[in-house]
Design brief:
This protein has 117 residues and is mostly helical. The protein has 7 helices and no strands.
């Protein structure tokens, strides 16, 4: 018995279910494309924002004025997306420190640029 066969048999004894799954090829995936450029591949497969749900701060960072930010706070409070207490804290920060206190402005295509597109 060769060294490779010995290793396979040892693997089967140690991980019988995994060995069976590998050998059955039920979980095989077909490769439908290939990229030679690593960075292009990373950008194309970037899942950085998959399933991401923006919160109030994300919306506030798109505002140009405190009035716009106040409208966002009212809207999200009215819809029940933020509590009254949290809305009050946000309004206080907005009044005392301004809209940029929530972070730099998120320009158009912010998420695309962050993902490298």
């Amino acid at each position: 018995m060769s060294g490779a066969e010995t290793d396979k048999e040892r693997f089967r004894r140690m991980f019988p279910n995994l060995a069976r799954e590998i050998e059955s090829k039920e979980s095989m995936m077909t490769m439908t494309s290939m990229r030679c450029n690593h960075q292009a591949g990373e950008r194309a497969s970037s899942g950085r924002f998959d399933g991401y749900v923006p919160d109030i701060i994300d919306f506030l960072r798109r505002c140009d004025t405190e009035r716009q930010a106040e409208e966002i706070v009212c809207y999200m409070e009215r819809r029940g997306e933020i509590s009254h207490e949290y809305a009050q804290k946000v309004r206080k920060q907005l009044r005392e420190v301004g809209v940029r206190s929530f972070g730099t402005k998120k320009e158009d295509d912010y998420y695309l640029k962050q993902a490298g597109f």
